[in-house]
Amino acid sequence: MDSLQHLGKKSEIPASYDPSVLETFGNKHPGYDYWVRFECPEFTTLCPITGQPDFATIIIDYLPAEKMVESKSLKLYLFSFRNHGNFHEDCVNIIMKDLIQLMAPKYIEVTGLFLPRGGISIHPYCNYGLPDTRYEEMAKFRMLHHNL
Question: What does the record give as the active site (predicted)?
């Protein structure tokens, strides 16, 4: 098992965006496909133009390969967006790319359910499947059929 720095310890919430807090542990079932879902209903970030807070539920679904993200480190990472200014679409893509780099999942998708501001809700979605595998085909299929 990887050395986990945050689990079971008091950890400081990062003051700014910080993917270095993310940690992994070994998947005990890498030969099987199964879904892991995280929901963070208290995600906050800042509008990069006005500096006003934006609130969302971030949903992360993935099929793990060899590594899995440790949930406390994920919580600290998501909290690190609190003082970070980025558009909603950028947030979900940054989260997905950081998690791909961290754990190289077979498949991952990230959805942001942002609360309305100015009368409009924004729900960006992104996904990724491991290239040259059935998971890449799955990503294409799910993107084409998203919200149908």
Answer: 47 (thioimide intermediate), 54 (proton donor)
**Is 70 flagged in the annotation as binding?**
yes
Q: Which pTM value belongs to this model?
A: 0.92
The catalytic site residues sit at: 47, 54
Phi, psi of 46 (to 5 degrees): -115, 140
Query: Does the annotation place 88 within a ligand binding site?
Result: yes
> Tens of pLDDT along the chain (148 residues)?
457 665 566 778 888 899 999 999 999 999 999 999 999 999 999 999 999 999 999 999 999 999 999 999 999 999 999 998 999 999 999 999 999 999 999 999 999 999 998 899 999 999 999 999 999 999 999 999 998 8
Domains of the chain in start order, with CATH, are: 15-57+68-116 (3.30.1130.10)
